[in-house]
Specification:
6 helices
Length: about 180
Amino acid sequence: MSDQEPEAPKAAEPSGVDLARVALRAAREQARARGDAAQQKKQARRGGLRSGARADGRDPMAFGAAINRLITERGWETPAAVGGVMGRWPEIVGEDLAKHCVPEKYDEDERVLVVRCDSTAWATNLRLLAPQLVARLNEDLGHGSVQMIKVNGPAGPTRRYGPLRAPGSTGPGDTYG
């Protein structure tokens, strides 16, 4: 027997295209670092930031452009688009349905739009129309933005009788099975 250990399987070595991508990424990072260092040296020699004839990041910009840049930087595109849908709800679902059904909230993680209706009849109607409404919303917002519409009926009044209540109790009706 020999003292040699069995060779471990070799990891797949990058191909030519992968090597080129890695080299390009490294070159870009080095160029960016050199540019940042040179810019900092210039500013230090001049005594700090100064205005000039050329545009820089400190120049004023239009309000709409500033908002769009903020939305993009923070990754708020989908919530902002859904907020726009809530503002245009009557245009999307129609005037009759919009009078009786109102969007309440949008869960971005689960991609669920919660809608409250003022009667159980309208809630049933909206549940039947939900697949077409999801398709229409996804056309407007982008594919997969809304996966499901959760329809809630009218909320009844809370049952709070008397000054003393047991924690977690829903009122006198919770003891009658």
